[in-house]
Amino acid sequence: MFTLVWLKDAAERALKTFAQSLLATLTLNGVDILHLDWGQALAAAGTATAISVLTSVVSAGVGSKGTPSLTNAAQPAAAGRHDRYAHTSW
Question: Mean pLDDT across the stretch 36-42?
Answer without folding.
Answer: 87
